[in-house]
Write a structure and sequence with these properties.
The protein contains three helices and five strands, in the order αβββαβαβ. It has 115 residues and is of the alpha/beta class.
Length: 115
Amino acid sequence: MVTLPFLTAAIVAMAPSPPVEQAPAPARAPESYVTFVGMSSKRCVFMTGDVLFDARQFRKDLKDGFDRADGIIIYHEPNVRPACLATARRIVRELGFTVTAIEEAPKDLDMGPPR
């Protein structure tokens, strides 16, 4: 004769287990790329790494090599012309990036034109 506890245990063992809820994948935290705006021979120069660009090249480099879901930090030389900053800001925004900060470059920033 089958006892009730045994029968209950058998039924529970045969029942399909409830679906396991998967935790949602954590959203990728947006990054902020660092750019640099400076002056060279009284002309605006831009950097996204260790190469100086003019405005056209800066736009192309950002468009082709960076994820637009991320933000941009625009560092600049202390005495950069406001027009240079305005150009950088316009290019970044037109390409769909978010400007996360515009500030003077820290002294230890490892990019910018050679001094």
